[in-house]
Amino acid sequence: MMDYILRRAFLMIPTLFGIMLLNFIIIQAAPGGPVEQMIAKLEGFDTSAISRISGSSNAEMQQLSFDESGEYRGRRGLDPELIKEIETLYGFDKPAHERFIQMIGNYLSLEFGDSFFRDAKVLDLIKEKLPVSISLGLWSTLLIYLISIPLGIRKAIRHGSRFDIWSSAIVTTGYAIPSFLLAILLIVLLAGGSYWNIFPLRGLTSDHFDSLSWPGKITDYLWHMVLPIFCMVISGFATLTMLTKNAFLDEIHRQYVQTARAKGLDDKGVLYGHIFRNAMLIVISGFPAALVGILLTSSLLIEIIFSLDGLGLLSYEAAINRDYPVVFGSLFIFTLIGMIVKLLGDLAYMLVDPRIDFDARD
Q: Is the dihedral of CA 259, 260, 263, 264 positive or negative?
């Protein structure tokens, strides 16, 4: 097992390099970089995220002129020396390949640079936002699996019964409701919108969190998590539930199950002694993608609605504002977390089914 872990760890290096290179090329080709935005600001144009979404700032920045060598000239005769200073400030005075090599060299020492527009180090920003995303991702994934796996097994055992039909209707309804729409509804109903003010609306903790006792801090934190976690779980457990049900249904009708029952094993012994480890393999295979998806992408709208300043919101704003150090730094962290979780998923295979031996593969 240790040899397999070491091989996978070494494989992460070229994988990270390839992902960073591909995204670097794509982002460099995108219009409206930080230099163009700074020039637009100096000329009095709005370069906020909202204006960029509406397309107004894009149209304005496309009007910025260039000379024959590709240098910025500005639309109103902006001083070329000032433009040179802006390019130097953001590191665009160097060719793209030199910038990429320098970036990778810095990343080897976990130096992600400074944000262009936030006046802070990228690593400090990630550390600041990481607790929010981890809280949303881990709690949501944990609850989704704790609900979906038992429910999926139960549905497989009682396939075609009233329980199966009604639970499928509930699961499908939950899946069909967008998480952001459910979040708005819960705010209106339970967070002081128009009816009851039961749950807090903003942040992970209350303003007086530091003055609370340890039990009070835990309670306060969990109370803030109720609504956002509920929204993410409701919209996320349907797929896993049906996947678990179909995986167990497929195994229940196999020949070895009939043989085990013919030998006198009861249904519980057959289910957990034979079916479980085979059916759970396909469920475990989807765990890394589910965790990374919830941790890094699915929580974006939830973070915005509940005023939770996490990595999803940070990455979105960085991409909109072309804050390249934050974009690449968060991408590096996201990719690394994804590969580590994928490795843990492979190791979980062996815990569920000891017959799996990755070291024995050619």
A: negative
Query: Alpha carbon of 170 to those of 60, 167, 178, 296, 330: distances in Å?
Result: 49, 5, 14, 27, 36
Q: Which amino acid is at 342?
A: K
Distance between terminal CA atoms of the chain?
Answer: 14
CA distance readout (Å), 340 to 289, 296, 361: 11, 14, 21
Q: Which two tokens stand for residue 126?
A: 């990630």
Each residue's pLDDT tens digit, 246-269: 888 888 878 888 888 888 777 788
pTM: 0.70
Owner of token pair 């109720």: 226
How many helices and strands in the chain, by DSSP H and E? Answer: 17, 0
Determine the 3-state secondary structure of 264 from DSSP.
coil
Where do the DSSP E strands lie in the chain? none
Residue 337's Cβ-count burial label (10 Å; 0-12, 13-18, 19+) is: buried
Residue pLDDT, tens place only, 71-130: 444 444 556 776 676 667 667 777 888 888 888 888 888 888 888 877 788 888 888 888
Kindly provide the b/e burial profile for residues 158-188, where b requires at least 16 CB atoms within 10 angstroms of the residue's own CB. eeeeeebeebeeebeebbeeebeebbeebbe
Q: What angle do CA 75, 89, 112 make, to 5 degrees?
A: 130
What does each C-alpha distance from 159 to 152, 245, 248, 261, 285 come to in angstroms? 10, 9, 11, 19, 24
Which residues is 72 bridged to in the sheet?
66
d(CA 104, CA 54): 34
Closest CA to 310 of 108, 140, 109: 140
